[in-house]
Amino acid sequence: EFLANHILFPTYQMATNSMPLISADNEWSPLKAVIVGRAEHSAFPSEPPHMMAATMVKQYLAEFRHKNPFPAEILEKAQQELDNFAAVLEQHGVRVYRPREVDWVKAGGYTGAMPRDALMTVGNTLIESAFAWRCRRDEVQLAYTDILDQLSSSGSARIYRAPVIVGEDTVYDGLANETNGDHDNGVNGSDNGGWAINNSRPAFDTADFMRFGKTIIGQISNVTNPKGVQYLQAIVPEGYTVEILKTTEGLTTRHIDATIVPLRRGLMIYVPDRVSEESIRQHAVFRDWELHPYP
Predict the structure, then answer these.
(1) Cα–Cα dist 126/160, whole Å
(2) How far is residue 211's CA from residue 246's CA, in Å, rounded to a whole number?
(3) What is the C-alpha to C-alpha distance for residues 61 and 74, in angstroms, rounded to an integer?
(4) Using one digit for the tens of pLDDT, what is the confidence trace for 61-97?
(5) In the chain, what are the helix, strand and coil shares in percent, each to the nearest 5?
(6) Residue 162 DSSP label
(7) pLDDT for 222-267, tens place per residue?
(8) DSSP label at 104?
(9) Cα(42)–Cα(71) distance, integer angstroms
(10) For 231-251, b where at least 16 C-beta lie within 10 A, e where not — what string?
(11) Do 245 and 217 form a contact (C-beta atoms < 8 A)?
């Protein structure tokens, strides 16, 4: 029912050295190339009410409507920040890619400002998120195709596009009345563990995962389910493993950088309300790390 589009490309030699353009296995090594997003024309995401209630700030829930643009002054400032960030990186010798400018309001989508949510590099493999959010379904196709085409024509990379959903999407089936109550991380036998998505098809945001050498650490959340984890494990390069943190029930709404943040090799901060030091040290990659709770 779900097809992964796998493309294998020949070796690419950078103009300045012989290293492949796509090569990453941690979150702290010096950048050689990066995608910096664009904020223009972003719209509020528009998912079912139970999903918005589970992941967004309550006071703004009324704004999360189909084709509702963010305030122009906020988008202008956000775009200025992203443009400045890209310029600073380029000044330091980093090759910066930018997504295509898209009218997300017209497209019925969300944003091109957050490539971290949509794409992840593991070794020489570039992986596209299998988004749970329907408003993000075409995000990579609309905004990042030019970048993927450039990499495919001149670089060494295995590129995995998101699984193709055949027929109706079932990821919200039976959950319209859920209120994001108790969670069991989807590993204790329940179908969805109380999350805002079920486990009927692979779903994950790449922002729910971090790279620690050959170990990929992730979490189950309101946008990542166990089938998504299984799918990711199946496509990462040989020798890499995907491990899931045991997190606090109900608090890891989405994206792992709100749970743990490595500052450099061997040093990490974590949010104690969301994950315990004991749980982190269950993973061999962290047993000799210096861990600090976020104050």
Answers:
(1) 6
(2) 17
(3) 17
(4) 999 999 999 999 999 999 999 999 999 999 999 999 9
(5) 30, 20, 50
(6) P
(7) 999 999 999 999 999 999 999 999 998 766 688 999 999 999 999 9
(8) H
(9) 9
(10) bbeebbeeebebbbbbbbeee
(11) yes
Three-point CA angle 285, 286, 291, nearest 5°: 160
Contact indicator for 231, 130 with CB cutoff of 8 Å: yes
Which tokens belong to 235? 């496509």
Closest CA relative to residue 49, chosen from 179, 190, 188, 232:
179
Structure tokens given for 293: 């709770």
Residue 188 pLDDT > 60: no
- Residue type at 64 in one-letter notation: F
Q: Environment class of residue 143 by beta-carbon count within 10 Å: exposed (0-12), middle (13-18) or buried (19+)? A: buried
Hey, what long-range contacts does 270-274 have (CB within 8 A, 24 or more apart)?
A: 270/294, 273/248, 274/247, 274/248
Cα distance between residue 72 and residue 201, in whole Å: 36
Sheet with 6-8, strands from edge to edge, namely: 6-8, 158-160, 125-128, 119-122
pLDDT 10s digits, 146-182: 999 888 876 668 899 999 998 999 999 999 765 444 4
Provide the terminal-to-terminal Cα distance of the chain, rounded to the nearest Å: 45
DSSP 223: S
Chain centre distance of CA 198: 18
Would you call 138 helix, strand, or coil by DSSP?
Answer: coil
Kindly report whether the global pTM for this prediction surpasses the value 0.85: yes
CA pair distance 137, 164, nearest whole angstrom? 10
